[in-house]
Amino acid sequence: MSIDIAVVGSCNVDLVVNVDSIPTVGQTVLGGDLRRIPGGKGANQAVAASRLGKSVAMIGRIGDDENGKFLQANLEENDVNTEFLFTTPLIPTGVALISVQHDGDNAIVVSPGANSELSPEDVVNVPPIAEAQVLLLQAEIPIETVLAAAQTAEGTVIWNPAPAPNESVPLELLDLVDVLVPNQQELELLIGNGSADNLESIFAMAKTFPCSSTIVTLGAQGAVVVASNEAVHIPAPEISPVDTTAAGDSFCAALAGSLVEGKDLVEATQWAVQVGAATTLIAGAQPSLPTSSEVLQRLEDR
Ligand code: RIB
């Protein structure tokens, strides 16, 4: 089977607790029951793209443990190709500790575990990366591996720099990226100064990257597409989110899927904004990822 989208990235088990408000430094709060949910920005994007009808391969690393088996089985149940999902002995599968507060906003701490072991050698000779029409990358694996995957790709490269890397990003990577997809905070961290709080500053900041286009996600405000010499704002539908976890992931997956279908960046972003919004109406990372018909249904029912 030919692969539309290859995802090189993280697989995490999400341990999620709902709270009234995310605790501040030094504060202890009581929350709801603990839930164990398949997550990880890479795996979320792979499952989202598959549910949206694309053929998808996931390239990553899990530990040789119960969590790893749980994540692999979940990817396979979602028709994601796991031929290049490697198992790492003696290192645990990645885990994310997530608090979700009353308005759907969250705070996440990731313990990367096996995700940190995904090496450049793991990705250089992987046929789906070279063959896919779109390669989707994030930043929960080593940056050298992100670069090696981008160098292997022959199709469109989308990089969602989430979470924003602590180290400086190799210029070589930005040169290979066709579409950069940060949120406002990630854009500010990548640039290192300035605030991305209006269309003009987002445009100016995005234009400093060598990539041909940048799409900045703005949460409830939608997204801005910066390509050629203009910035186009795509508003989001008005909704009351239940849980914003994985909204950025389904956005990236929908964007990738639309590019596979030959849509232009603005059309692709219009769809991605709808998919991201629909994702926030259901709790949990992967349980919330919609099929195409569920996107429209959820937004009509809201
Ligand atoms: O983007 C949401 C994801 O971020 C969660 O599923 C969690 O695993 C972290 O990687």
Question: In brief, what are we looking at here?
Answer:
The protein is of the alpha/beta class and 302 residues long. The chain has a single domain, classed as UDP-N-acetylmuramoyl-L-alanine:D-glutamate ligase (3-Layer(aba) Sandwich), CATH 3.40.1190.
Any key phrases for this structure?
11 helices, about 300 residues, UDP-N-acetylmuramoyl-L-alanine:D-glutamate ligase, alpha/beta, ten-stranded mixed β-sheet, single chain, four-stranded mixed β-sheet, binds alpha-D-ribofuranose, globular
Total domain count: 1
Q: What is the CATH class? A: Alpha Beta
Overall strand count = 14
CATH superfamily: Ribokinase
The level of helicity is 25-40%
Query: What does the radius of gyration come to?
Result: 18 Å
Share of residues in strands = 15-25%
Q: Please state the average pLDDT score.
A: 96
Q: Remind me, CATH topology?
A: UDP-N-acetylmuramoyl-L-alanine:D-glutamate ligase
* Distinct ligands, ions and cofactors found in the model: alpha-D-ribofuranose
Sequence stretches where pLDDT stays below 50 over 5 or more residues: none
Q: What is the N-to-C succession of helices and strands?
A: EEEHEHEEEEHHEHEHEHHEEEHHH
Explained architecture:
With 302 residues, the protein is of the alpha/beta class. It has 11 helices and 14 strands. Strands 1, 4, 5, 6, 9, 10, 11, 12, 13 and 14 form a 10-stranded mixed beta sheet that branches. It starts with a strand and ends with a helix. The model has no long low-confidence stretch (mean pLDDT 96). The site of alpha-D-ribofuranose has 16 residues, from strand 2, helix 1, strand 8 and helix 9.
